[in-house]
Design brief:
- It is a single chain.
- By secondary structure, the chain is α+β, with helices and mostly antiparallel strands.
- Strand 10 and strand 11 form a beta hairpin.
């Protein structure tokens, strides 16, 4: 059950990120054509007011399809149409007319020729791959020449649409942290009788103590606070003790087990969870802002140190996030919410890196195009995206290696 909550939380973060793009696009007059949770192909889809709402088969993120992300080029349309033209030469004439119009940047003429191309495609007997490519060519020309095409919008509109996704994640992270501080945040200085982690091979582990258990008594004597609990364990002097726990609404005693001595103290072998301390509204807002800024600072330091093994080792991927979240949820919902807020903030920061195809790259190129007063061609975006994809792949493999080392190799 906890895994469903964890995965559901990550899906919600992706949904809200895409919702930011989606909502602001509509506000500035750009009508999205699709809203996906996950990546295509769709396993479930409905169409409403000309927008496809779908759940993708690849559960690694989400997307909002904004029309006309790139200035349409005649060469691109010809490349997409080539398989269909080879199967039906009658498609050559309408394709050529649209290509010439696009090369001349005569968007009105290109749009006027689109119905002829669509009719010719629909009337052709094409193989599935050629048909998909031809329909993509039509879609690219149709959306790229429309008045609501992204590349034709003012710079501020384009930046607003793209920055809305990461900004939504920042707002969500701040709201999560503020809610945690208001209702009770784990204190760094105050421990509780709840178990956060059990040391492998320790007496606690052997006796069956679990993370998330609340220790209510030792040898039948109640332990209302961690100080009382600690004193009772230390007073054992190595003899067997009986620990009574509260777990899942039930209270029961664990099998007796001796304590061990470490650094001059008798211990049972577990880490206590922090006590939850609520804060005032004003203090909660300040602490939430401090938490967000701390993540910005730490993320920047980690990214700068990617070339160093110590900093690389701090990165974690999807597997690690799910594992940490599951462990935190076992201890308490507040712990899980803090990790969810961290993930939301990290998602925003990663997307703001100035590399295509990340949001930060699109923001940078929108500003560049605004300064030069002319849109760049698709091939420029594709070439520059190689750098961004390389960075993404590097981070992916680093985090995958870290996660495998942590969770599958002991």
């Amino acid at each position: 059950m906890t895994w469903l909550v964890v995965i559901g939380g990550l899906v919600v973060l992706v949904f809200l990120h895409e919702l930011g793009h989606f909502g602001v696009a509509q506000l500035v007059g750009i009508k999205p054509r699709a809203f996906y949770i996950g990546f295509p192909p769709a396993i479930a889809k409905i169409r409403h007011n000309g927008i496809d709402y779908a759940i993708g088969a690849i559960p690694l993120g989400g997307l909002v399809r904004i029309p006309g992300m790139h200035r349409p080029a005649g060469r691109d349309i010809e490349v997409f149409m080539d398989p269909a033209v080879r199967e039906n030469p009658e498609l050559h004439a309408p394709t050529k007319r649209i290509r010439h119009a696009l090369d001349d940047e005569n968007w009105a003429a290109a749009r006027a020729a689109l119905p002829e191309l669509r009719a010719a495609i629909d009337g052709s007997q094409l193989t599935p791959s050629a048909s998909r490519s031809a329909h993509r060519a039509y879609r690219e020309a149709d959306e790229g020449t429309g008045d609501d095409a992204y590349w034709r919008q003012k710079t501020w509109k384009r930046v607003a649409v793209i920055v809305a996704g990461p900004l939504m994640n920042v707002v969500v992270a701040f709201a999560i942290f503020a809610a945690v501080f208001l209702t009770g945040a784990p204190s760094q200085n105050l421990a509780s009788t709840k178990v956060a982690q059990v040391e492998a091979g320790s007496p606690a582990a052997v006796s069956g103590l679990h993370a998330g258990d609340r220790i209510v008594a030792v040898d039948g004597k109640q332990t209302p606070t961690f100080d009382v609990l600690s004193r009772r364990i230390r007073a054992s002097h190595g003899r067997a003790i009986v620990v009574t726990v509260e777990r899942g609404g039930r209270t029961f005693a664990l099998p007796p087990h001796t304590t061990i001595k470490r650094e001059g103290r008798w211990i049972f072998g577990f880490e206590p969870a922090a006590r939850l301390v609520p804060h005032s509204f004003g203090t909660s807002m300040r602490l939430a802002a401090d938490q967000c800024w701390s993540i910005v600072r730490d993320t920047g330091a980690t990214l700068r140190g990617l070339v160093h093994s110590k900093e690389r080792a701090q990165l974690t991927g999807t597997v690690g996030i799910v594992k940490y979240s599951d462990q935190a949820l076992t201890v308490g919902f507040s712990y899980y919410l803090q990790i969810l807020g961290f993930v939301s903030m990290s998602l925003a920061l990663m997307n703001l890196l100035p590399f295509l195809p990340l949001d930060g790259g699109h923001i940078l190129f929108s500003i560049i195009e605004g300064v030069r007063r002319r849109a760049l061609a698709r091939e420029v975006y594709e070439r520059v995206s190689v750098v961004g994809f390389s960075l993404i792949i590097l981070i992916f493999f680093v985090t995958l290696n870290n996660d495998v080392g942590r969770y599958f190799h002991g």
